[in-house]
Amino acid sequence: MIATPASEGEFLPAPRPLLLSLRPRFAQAILDGTKTVELRRTRVSAPPGTLLVIYSSSPVMAVVGVATLADRDTASPATIWRRYRSQLGLSQAEFSDYFAGAEQATALSIAAPRTLPTPLTLARLRAHSAFQPPQSYRYIAPTDPSPLTELAVAWAG
User: Fold this and answer.
1) Please, are residues 93 and 84 in contact by the beta-carbon 8 Å criterion?
2) Which of 37, 82, 106, 143 is most buried when burial is the number of CB atoms within 10 A of its CB?
3) Are 69 and 110 spatial neighbours (Cβ–Cβ below 8 Å)?
4) Averaged over 57-85, what is the pLDDT?
5) 4 pLDDT above the threshold of 90
6) Helix, strand or coil, per DSSP, at residue 70
């Protein structure tokens, strides 16, 4: 278990790392620092300080980096667009398409992005278990493949 200092002599468990699936374009923009806010159609309850493990979807199909959740904001799509449009790395048309029919949007502010020295490929993850990357996001569980759980522990500090 990962622990963080709470106060002198006390330790609290760190938040469970969050595995985010992103299109390669957006994963790279986050790692380059040009995209500092990621969007989700559902509320994300992970607290600030949560380790974000970045999975780049097809054709890359690998965990390519990590970052830290700096903050989260859930509001109407129009409000999220007004607050964060310059940090999203997408056009207003792409934003509108993504949130069509949605009543709420969640903005995840991302800090300290770091590229992994060697991507953790889907093939390597599946060599350890029947791993399935999430469509959007999910928490990393102790039952996930050991290369993923070990990465989460190593990068959480």
Assistant:
1) no
2) 37
3) yes
4) 98
5) no
6) strand
Report yes or no on 87 lying in a domain: yes
CA dihedral sign of residues 79, 85, 90, 93: positive
- Does residue 8 lie within any of the structural domains? no
Spatial distance between the Cα atoms of 152 and 53, rounded to a whole number of angstroms: 7
If you search the block for the tokens 């093939």, which residue do you land on? Answer: 123
Amino acid (one-letter) located at 122: L
**Residue 65, exposed/middle/buried by CB under 10 A (0-12, 13-18, 19+)?**
buried
Residue 36 lies in a domain: yes
Residue 48's CATH number? 2.30.130.30
Interatomic CA distance for residues 7 and 61, integer angstroms: 40
CB atoms within 10 A of CB 155: 17
Are 104 and 74 in contact by the 8 Å Cβ rule? The answer is yes
What value does the mean pLDDT take over residues 9-24? Answer: 79
How far apart (Å, rounded) are the C-alpha atoms in residues 27 and 103? 25
What is the average pLDDT across 89-106?
A: 97
